[in-house]
Structure formats: structure tokens, C-alpha cells
Amino acid sequence: MQPVNWGIISTAKIGTEKVIPAMQKSQHCRIQAIASRDLALARKWAKTLGIPKAYGSYEELLADPEIEAVYNPLPNHLHVPWSVKAAEAGKHVLCEKPIALDAKEAAMLVAARDRTGKLITEAFMVRSHPQWLRARQIVRDGHIGELRAIQGSFSYHLTDPTNVRNKADIGGGGLYDIGCYPIVTSRFLFGAEPTRVVALIEHDPVLKIDRLASALLDFPQGQASFMCATQLVPYQRMQIYGTRGRIAVEIPFNAPPDKPCRIFVDDGSGLGDASAKQESFHVCDQYAIQGDLFSEAIRSGKPVSFPLEDAVKNMRVIDALFRSARSGGWEQV
């Protein structure tokens, strides 16, 4: 298969440190250009990462006829407008999460996809990692009985007011940044949508972003709950509970690309983790897998595993959680 020529709009840290190096090692992705509103910065990263072309505007990159697909890791409020512009310029788009600021905005991308015929996908790399595919298979095969509950935690500590994650007016805050992960993985495992949700959210008095959120999602088959925070000790874990067993995903979201990942499957016969059995996965980079799968979809013309409609559904859950925090009660999704 001929590799897909990719362009990167933005020199965001997630791209320069994780996604671009991973895609450069993948089979089907060829990073050909990077753009920034600061040409010097684009040139710096092009040189550092060995990217052939650097552009001083996103428009210039989108006008490059060689570029077939674009990765968009811009700040959250720019995800939709620049993804739409990229599709209208004839480029396929892999856009960072959250794909939009609300479900209504995400629906604009569905319209752009249908209008242009270009693939647009939300970059939830976790859904292509072998550990999550295995966890879902264990659930589907009934090895832990009937799936009834999922619990998640995801936190880090960041108080720098200049960081985009701490700017409320451009889509900063914990629920957008990391709360979206336990939401999407819970939907992934249940294979369904929550009908209602309730949330308690604490905002930073100065930064105004949501810095601590606790949420409960009511699914037809069970419940999912999670905590996410931007000013707590860094930690992440997902626990999956069935009627006859449990799965613990050790590093569920920031899966390391340089060492094996592990999940633990427990039948509950021993106290604590005494009866948990470990499953390890070969070293892999979830960003490389994500890039290859999207490139394969471009070349084959086959549908992506998770179309934009799934992104809209995830945003509906986030929307409902924000509504719940304001109303103080349950909100329908």
C-alpha cells in the first residue's frame, strides 16, 4: 500500500512529542509538512523531526496538493473550524479529542464530511490499542459474567495559566481534556449509550476551568463512574466489573510506547489482587496504530471503525454532564 502523505497543522506538544514521531515509525503514514502561524517555529520543528516542508500558515499547508490527510491538534475551539477547512480543501482529517466543544458543533463536521466526501475522525487512539481490544473481547466473551459497572480515574497537576488546558474561553478544563477518555471507553465496553448522567464539578476560582469532576453514567446494562482532575496527583486506572470477574487496565490512556502494557483479570476468589491474572501486550505505539488504520481507510475506501456519529454521541454525554453540574440533578443524554 502506498503511504498516505500527511500534513500537521500546529506545533502542539501532543503532536511534536507523541503523534508525529509515532506516525513517522508507522507503515502507512508519511509526514510531509508541518504548519504554524510562526514560520520560524514551523521550520524549527520540521528540522527537529525531519519533516520535508514547513509552512507559516495553515492555509498554505491546506493548499499543498501533495498533502492527502491532515492531523489537527489545535486548541479545542479550533478543532471544528480548521477540520472543516481541511475537508473543504480536499484533505482527510484526523482531529484531536474532544472533536468539538459541544454536540451541535460536532454535527457540523458530519455535514462537512458528507458534503466533501472526505474522512473525518476523532483521534481516540485508545480504541485501537491491543489492551483495550482485549478487554472488550473478554467482556464480550462473558469471561467476567455480565458487565455491570465501570470505574475510572484520570488526573494530572497543571496550574500554568498560559497552558491551553487552563484557558476556559478556548475549551480548557478537565472534562474536555481527560474526562472524555473514561466516557469513550465506557461506551466502548458497554457497546451502548448512557441514558442519563449526573455530575459534580469544581471550578478553579481564578482560571475558571473545571479542575475536579465526578460523574455517574447510567447505561441500560449498568453504570459507569469516573473522577477526572487537573490539579491532583497524576494517576490513571480503569476497573471493569462483571458478575463473575473483574478487569483492571493498569495504564489505560497514556499507554507507553516503549514497554509492554498490562491488564489484570480477576475472578475474585482471593482478597485484594491475590487471584488476579496478568496479561501483557507486546510493545506498540497506539498513535502509530491509529495513523495506520486511518491511512488504510483512506486507501481502501472502507468506513472507519468509529465514524463521526460516534464523536457526536460522546459530545452529547459531555454536554449532559455540564448541564447536570449546573442543574444539580440528573440530565438526559
Instruction: State the strand order across the main sheet.
Output: 14-13-12-11-7-10-9-8-15
Global geometry: globular
- Measured as a percent range, the helix fraction is 25-40%
Spans of at least 5 consecutive residues with low confidence: none
Q: Report Rg.
A: 20 Å
Mean pLDDT: 97
Give the SSE order as H and E letters: EHEHEHEHEHEHEHEEEEEEEHHE
Task: Report the portion of residues in β strands.
Answer: 25-35%
Strand runs, count:
15
Largest sheet: 9 strands, mixed
Structural class: alpha/beta
Distance between the termini: 41 Å
- Annotation field: number of helices: 9
How would the blueprint of this fold be written?
Layout: E1 4-9, H1 13-24, E2 29-35, H2 39-49, E3 53-55, H3 58-62, E4 69-72, H4 79-88, E5 92-95, H5 103-116, E6 120-122, H6 130-140, E7 147-157, H7 174-190, E8 196-203, E9 210-218, E10 223-229, E11 231-242, E12 246-249, E13 261-266, E14 276-281, H8 286-300, H9 308-327, E15 331-332
Helix pairs in contact: 1-8, 4-5, 5-9, 7-9
